[in-house]
Specification:
Order of helices and strands: HEEHEH
Low-confidence stretches: 5-24
Shape: elongated
Number of strands: 3
Distance between the termini: 79 Å
Oligomer: single chain
Strand order of the largest sheet: 2-1-3
Length: 88
């Protein structure tokens, strides 16, 4: 009985962990920063306007999510193809 309960609890924990993984993997463009949020802050905003609306009336502000910015920069920098020299 105890083993069955422990197995069910472990299985439930695994399901919850796996279900939460895709949502946490998404990088949002803007972060609420300052006040209690620190750096990089609460990064769950698709638009600057969404973030600023949430920041309204607080000591927080909004800035681009550094993870989002880094990934965008890496996608802009594409490796240049190597030129092959032909021997004649």
């Amino acid at each position: 009985m105890i083993r069955t309960s422990a197995a069910l609890l472990a299985a439930a924990a695994a399901v919850v962990t796996l279900a939460a993984a895709p949502a946490s993997a998404r990088d949002f463009a803007y972060c609420l920063q300052g006040g209690e949020w620190g750096y990089p802050g609460n990064c769950q905003f698709d638009s600057y306007q969404q973030c600023m609306t949430t920041a309204s009336g607080t000591r927080a502000g909004c800035d681009i999510n550094p993870v989002f910015a880094f990934r965008a920069q890496q996608q802009d920098v594409q490796p240049q193809p190597r030129l092959r020299h032909r021997r004649h």
